[in-house]
Amino acid sequence: MGRAGLVFGLLDTIPSMGDPAVGARYRDLTISWMRYGYRDAIIEGRTVTEILRKAMERQYKYCLVLACGSIVSEHWDPDEASNGDFLSAILRWIADNDFLVAGRIVGGGDAWFGFDDRCLLVNVVRYRRLRAPRVEHPLESPIKLPKPVSTVRDNHIVALRPSGVHECVRARLPGWPIIAACLEEGHSVDGLAPNVLDRILSLVEAGHAGTECFASYLGQGIDRFRRAAGHNDLSEDQVRFLDLVALQTANARKGVFLWNIESYADVATSLGDLNRPVSTLYSVAAGFKPNMILNMHGFDGRTRVVFFDYSPNALAVRKCMVEEWDGYDFPRFVQYLFRRFPYPETYYHLWGDLSHSELEEHHLSEAWDRELKRWGGAQSFRSHWTAYRDLAHDYIPADILTEPSSVLEAIRSEPRAVIWWSNAFFTMFSNWFFGLDERRGFYEFWIERLAAINPEILVYGSDYNNASVNCIQAADYWIRYREFDGDELNPCKLHRTEIRM
Questions:
Q1: Left, alpha or beta for 469 (phi > 0: left; psi -120 to 50: alpha)?
Q2: Are 91 and 3 spatial neighbours (Cβ–Cβ below 8 Å)?
Q3: According to the model, what pLDDT value does residue 273 have?
């Protein structure tokens, strides 16, 4: 069961898109971008009514339906307690509102009113009490329906209120039976809050020409996209999405994470004697999470550290930190890194949608203060860093999705080893260039080989579905993963702690 009994639904609109191959990519993108914040089951159906029927059968309380081609837009907030992600926004809206159905209200006039079925939130419990009316039910003849009073803001209908008056109309828009039922009972119908709707981008609203134009940028075509060039055939949402993807895909292989996007919650709890002290830590070269893993598991003078990354720049920056930084005043050292490894040859992944040109001194200080709090203060961190710098380090340039052999060959069959691959199988780069089936294949090859080489190695990271993996040994994980037999709609959740990315 999802958080607060909420399940996401996926409306299969591929048949309406003309090109099945493009529709399939829209489906992949929609599921992948859902998975940045939502890690539970997804119910897929050809109609909203079918999805809601399945949600009732599975005893969910709420269902958020998104159509193929709808993209949940997220951004990295370094404050783990902020709850600024899309899922948290939806859950807050649910907690604050008494509703049957909510979404983007459309219509008026001869077609009456309905909902844009690209985004629809339904109270499944109340929907069941209404005897589950069909959401898609265009009328052939006019009938008497309650006449609502609409509230319009910024050219959008944000609410429908009962007026006590009826009118004869031929309703044709999806969701009209639920709206009519609410109004008959004297209840208002509200649109979702702007902070929710504005974070859902539609890749299909530009029509056939826009779909063809968007399709031309799929895969390697993204290298040709330039926002400033102007795109008359693309919608604003399509341009927004492509701009984000183009930025990330162009810079991923020269990117550096000075701080981690993901939480430390999965490694910040003592594991007793499990894999203690670490013999070898194999890790992507990102932020200070590798250090927190060593700190929690323990290490000694014989511990090795092997960094691997598809960004040579990330490895170079990490090597520079180990060799040249004394553990004091990281913001000052970051300024040195910016000069030593300058932008744009090196791309620094920053938080809160900041660009390199917008970064100010207080941003670095605030980020470093947050990091030090995780460590219990500056002295505690420096003591760790001083001992850590004396460890043997190796650096391997490798993409573990497509070319994992160099990393797998470096892994020893030894006790007390630990590996952290972060979200390497679920990055914007991988989500854009590889479909879900391809990413699943890459991931399963990686896990199978890892378990064969060192069955006892303790694993941390995320799978191709962005489901957390932690505090489990590779062989045990591989056995249980195959027994579960999940897919992109039903993630395999084998972890002690679920973390946000």
A1: beta
A2: yes
A3: 63
